[in-house]
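Its record is quoted verbatim for completeness.
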Amino acid sequence: MGWVKWLVYIVSLFCPPFGFVTFWVFSGRHNDELEHIAKWSMAAAFIGAVVYIILAALGVTFFGYNWQGMCWPR
């Protein structure tokens, strides 16, 4: 599972629900390698979720910046 675990980490970072589900599925297995992947996918998902929350607080969306909504009305 050399490149697959890196793929799981990257997808977990950009799509946090995938990381949470991966943690839930892999943590129940009694394999040390899968438990290790589960732990780090949960960490990547948590970091991704925090980054998304910070970007949402700054007004950055998928469609561009939301500076108009952050400015005082004129």
